[in-house]
Design brief:
By secondary structure, this protein is mostly helical.
């Protein structure tokens, strides 16, 4: 056995060629027009099928988006209607509350007016009573002054009469 470099084994398909010379490679057979047409046709068919599937998916997504938009717009309209109704209710409640507050204010004002009138009447009565008491005191002081005046005159006359007797 002699040492030599091993030679790679060449398969039969690498050696076979259409003309039988055995000099071509296997991939040359793939370059034949019939094979190329078959492969390209298969690729076109696969690409067409894939594009149809993608178009279907895109159309389905579009439909879902349209449905979602329609549903969203419907909910927005419903929410707007609810808001309008609640605004109307709030306005009515505010009007009723304002009317009630006005009535309470009017009643309170009327009550205050009556209390003021009653207070003014009491003050007038107290003032009249006080004035009457002051007038009575003045009259009493006048009486005392007159009585003192008469006593002083009488005493003066008596004193003058005593002096005239002396």
């Amino acid at each position: 056995m002699t040492s030599s470099t091993p030679t790679p084994k060449i398969e039969a398909r690498d050696q076979a060629t259409p003309d039988g010379s055995g000099q071509g490679t296997w991939w040359r057979e793939w370059l034949k027009p019939i094979v190329v047409v078959a492969v390209v046709s298969a690729l076109v068919a696969v690409l067409t099928l894939a594009s149809n599937v993608l178009i279907g998916v895109v159309e389905s997504l579009r439909a879902d988006i349209r449905d979602g938009n329609a549903q969203l717009h419907g909910e927005i309209r419903a929410n707007r209607e609810e808001i309008k109704v609640s605004e109307a209710q709030l306005r009515e409640e505010i009007r009723a509350s304002n009317a009630q507050l006005r009535e309470e204010i009017r009643a309170s004002n009327a009550q205050l007016h009556e209390e003021i009138k009653a207070s003014e009447a009491r003050v007038r009565d107290e003032l009249k009573a006080s004035e009457a008491r002051v007038n009575q005191r003045i009259d009493a002081v006048k009486e005392e002054v007159r009585a003192s005046e008469f006593r002083v005159r009488d005493e003066l006359k008596a004193s003058e009469a005593r002096q005239a007797q002396q």
